[in-house]
Amino acid sequence: MKHEELTHKIIGCAMKVHSTLGNGFQEVIYQRALSIEMTKQGLDFQREMEMKIYYEGIDIGTRRVDFFVEDIIMVEIKALIKLEDVHLAQAMNYFQAYHLPIGLLINFGSKSLDFKRVYNVNHSDNKEYIKNNPKINKS
């Protein structure tokens, strides 16, 4: 997969943060720690970046993404006991709305780090991969 190396590096950073802090903190604490770890790993990112949302080509507002890494991967973080389907659906909608090929949903709130790679099936980077892997998380 085209972005596998980058997502692997981001997940590694999240694992380091989770193994150091454990679970039980607020999302903002994990966000700050993850930004430190990604900086140490040489990743280029923006934190809490405002991105416009369009409806039929009309700007209808903005939303802040937790991280936008290397100008291609959106990372949504949570600090919940358990991820629910609604969180995955929300992440999928964001990735599709921003026309991104892939994103990460990372949950620091559970005993073990929980993460999901979320693929935008409508993005040209993913056409062949989606065809060969029908069971992946798709938007």
Provide a descriptive summary of the structure in words.
By secondary structure, the protein is α+β, with helices and mostly antiparallel strands. Helix content is 37%, strand content 29%. It has a 5-stranded mixed beta sheet with strand order 1-2-3-4-5, sandwiched between helices. Helix 1 packs across helix 2. The model has no long low-confidence stretch (mean pLDDT 87).
Query: Mind describing the biggest β-sheet?
Result: 5 strands, mixed
Q: Radius of gyration in whole Å, from Cα?
A: 15 Å
In terms of DSSP E residues, the strand content is: 25-35%
Oligomer: single chain
- The amount of helix comes to 25-40%
Number of domains: 1
Order of helices and strands: HHEEEHEEH
Query: How far do the termini sit from each other?
Result: 17 Å
Number of helices: 4
* Helix-and-strand structural type: alpha+beta
Stretches where pLDDT is under 50 for at least 5 consecutive residues are none
DSSP E strands, number = 5
Spatial strand arrangement across the major sheet: 1-2-3-4-5
Overall pLDDT score: 87
Q: Overall 3D geometry?
A: globular
How would you sum up this structure in a few lines?
With 139 residues, the protein is an alpha+beta fold. The protein is 37% helix and 29% strand.
Defining key terms:
about 140 residues; alpha+beta; 4 helices; about 35% helix; about 30% strand; globular
Outline the fold blueprint.
Blueprint: H1 4-21, H2 27-40, E1 45-55, E2 58-69, E3 73-78, H3 85-97, E4 102-107, E5 114-119, H4 127-132
Parallel strand pairs: 3-4
Antiparallel strand pairs: 1-2, 2-3, 4-5
